[in-house]
# Entry
Amino acid sequence: MKFIHFTLFTVFILMNMTSCLDSEKAAALKGRSLRADSLLAYLRSSSSDGYMFGHHDATLYGRERVNGEERSWTFTEGRCDVRDVCGDYPAIISFDLGHIELGDSLSLDFVPFDMIRKEMVAHYRRGGIVTASWHLNNPLSGGNSWIENDTAALNSKERTVASVLEGGSNHAKFQVWLNRLADFLNSVKTEDGEKIPILFRPWHEHTGNWFWWGASHCTPEQYVDLWKMTRTALDKSGADHLIYAYSPGMECGGDSVIYLERYPGDDLVDLLGVDAYEYLDEGMSLKDGNARYVENLNTILSMLTTVGLKHDKPVAVTEMGFEGIPYERWWTEVADSILSKHPVAYGLVWRNVKGDVTHHYAPYPGHSSAPDFIEFYNLKRTLFLKDICKK
Ligand code: BMA
# Structure
């Protein structure tokens, strides 16, 4: 079985045994808890052993067919398509906090927040890493994060970010939204009351235009102010267990100027990511689609590696995948052929929607890419839960 020497637990133990006081002091100076600091240290170091595999909504539900609507799903603690295929959990599990801002009990994907909280703690207890994104609603139109099918959002797109910033009509309402987000994040605790470290990834894919915070809907200064306002609210709430990921989309290409155009600053970001999906243009063959994705993502990751070194930050593919995984050997021939070439901490694929024929990004038992995924799992350099845990 694969096993790496420098595990997350090793980091905890070393810190606790040798330099607990110093580390606590140093972490506190940066506003981070010791656990959050250990997570960051691990993300910085893990790429020397390989790269971690992550999956969004990896547990609670999966791809199996059900009758009825998405909202009538049932959820099962710990169930996991990836584990059903390879016998192990992903090293990193991601959850989305969309609708926490509304005070709802279910996320935008109808997952109960109480179960998300429990599952985050359970994955941390298993020895894994937890990350969170936030597809929050549009504060001006009342619609969701995506503006394309929302006429009110399209008509007000240049005013939406401005409306939540200081002086904007939605500023006060947005502080309430941020406080609800903070309350949830601060509630993700073990039984002994310790908040678990979470890699938080707000305002992602802002180089595109599909979300209300996208590039053409606000100026770089407004985007940075949005990030700073979010950070200030979370810091004020005492959320010292968070570290932060910056995740532009593929539009940046290999251009570090575009990548960094809206970068909030080294003191406000801990990990540099990119969200990058494979897709086929009309009539495009799988072979050409794969080749284009490999080339484009390699170009981006070469740029990101240089930027990461310069800014002294770990790098990761914070979202990736090919919807439906229509190529049987996608894991070894596409994903691994990219991720193994760069010092990335992890690559995380998106969710497997229950009952949906195509909206899945990880294999499930019986999927045509499952045998290749097992090969991928068995590569020494792919790190799953058992690899990052102390045995
Ligand atoms: C998207 C899709 C949506 C989902 C959103 C947030 O990419 O999976 O169905 O609501 O992510 O999880």
Notes: The first helix runs from residue 8 to 17. The chain is about 40% helix and 15% strand.
